[in-house]
Amino acid sequence: MKLKYLIVLMFLLALVSFFTRLPVITADDIILGAHRGSNSTENTLEAIEQAVHNPKYSFMEFDVQLTRDGKVVVYHDYTLLRLHGQASIISNTDYDELCKMADVDIPLLEDVLDVVGDEKLIVDVKGSLNNERNQLLVDEIVSIFVERGISDNLMLSSIFPEIVEYSKKEHPNIKTGVSYMVTSVTYIPSERLVDEFYSYIDYINADYIMLHEQHLKNYDLIKDRLPKGKKLIFWSMSEEMYLIDLDKSKLW
Question: N or C: the chain end with fewer CB closer than 10 Å?
Answer without folding.
Answer: N
